Amino acid sequence: MVANLQEPLSSFRAMRAADLESVARIELSAYPFPWTYAIFRDCLSAGYECWVLERSAEVIAYGVLSVAAGEAHVLNICVAPAEQGRGHGRRVLMRLLDLARWHRVERAYLEVRPSNKTAIALYHDVGFNEIGRRPNYYPAARSREDALVMAMELLSPE
Hints:
- The chain has helices at about 20-30, 35-45, 90-100, 115-125; strands at about 10-15, 50-55, 60-70, 70-80, 105-110, 130-140, 145-155.
- It is of the alpha+beta class.
- The radius of gyration is 16 Å and the shape is globular.
């Protein structure tokens, strides 16, 4: 008899209102200054691209993308802490970028804390470049933290 040591498969699907409690719980466990349940609810209501990565009917990661005026903005990517380091964040990011391309946007933007070295490395690795900085953008333990603004070209000029 051969043991199957592979992880169960994970898959993407659109986020639903029924996912909001799980998503908010993951957000709270992953970030010191998390988005609220209401923010995620509002993103769904606004028609943003909200997607979850699930395994065995359990949400393990998610992403939120807004699309308007030929641009996309990666608003949130989060992986449950117990699932981090397995490539799920990259998969979520690539799914959001595929959705942006499907919408035929030319450029994707995001903001990231300078202290989030892991995310910055991922964003550089997939083709984002730093284009600016927003001073005092994020709340921090003792004050505020800047945001690095990053962008990536998605469509080649025609």
